[in-house]
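W.,

You were right to be curious about this one. When I first looked at the sequence I had no strong expectations either way, so I just let the prediction run and decided to look at it fresh. Below is the sequence, 319 residues in total, followed by the output.
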Amino acid sequence: MEIQPLPWLLLNAAGRADYSSDAGFFFSPRVSLTFGFGRTDTLRLAFARSFRKPNFLEKSLHPNVTFPEGGPIQGSDQEKFREFLSRVGANPTLGAEELTAFELGYQRKWAHGIRTNLEFFANLYANTSSIEPRIVEQPNGLPDLDKSTVWFETRDERYIMLGAELIASWHELDWLWLEASWTMVGLWSGDFDRQLHTTPKNIFSLACDVLHPSGLLGSLVLSGLSEFVETGVFNPAGILEPTMSIHHPNSLHVQGRLGWRSRYGRLQFETGVKFMLPLSFDSDPLHTYDAAGVYTPEGVQFGGTILVPTVLAYVEGEL
């Protein structure tokens, strides 16, 4: 719904209703007010609430196991271990995560295609979930498989994220666009008594995009993340061991594209090269982790997703 009661005021409101037999009913509203001051200045206030239903991995997926002949687990213990695996990974009682968001934004249009945006945001996270190993030991030191769990659980703690973003862009020419942005983010526990370090505190980007009438096209993006810590990483020592925390150092990513676009009748043809160069400020500067992983004492990579220098040549056509 969009209403403009005054020439300088625009109201936008929307809502979404979701129902799931295993997660219940949720209503997600979104409201924004936009104030226009002349032709150059805009102020925007926004509020939204949303829910994230647990995915298949969090609610339904459990690991399986094959027992080798002559192994330490035999007979009825095998069935007992399989029953324990029903409490590893997915949790069928897991509820939806909640997000309540507030935004305040100001935009200024300057001369010669220059535009600046200043955004402030506050996000409140509730009912978040993560893997929580709860291993109950027997008197002999071995885990009690009847009482132990290693699955997703809803956290009692709430989290608050506060941040600000400054964006400057230039788009006076139809075929050239430039943009620079800087974002500052902080994450705290719900009572502000503890600051967390699981998100980068500074994020920046420099970007340009070219689509010249002659057919030359290209883009170049330099983005950077300050250091942060990823938690809940699986331990290579086994599912019964505590999860790990992995430090992500400061990193840069250079991504780009250079190509040519032409048209032959109704066929649009494009060819070029895309590349990505990750730069990390640690012992191996030419790779970063999109998702954290570790190396075992034997030097074998366990888990994670590594980003490495990549070059891709492509050809595509469109009718």
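Here's what jumped out at me. The CA atoms of residues 122 and 197 lie 17 Å apart. And, maybe more interesting for your project: Residues 76-85 form the longest helix (10 residues).

Coffee later to discuss?

I.
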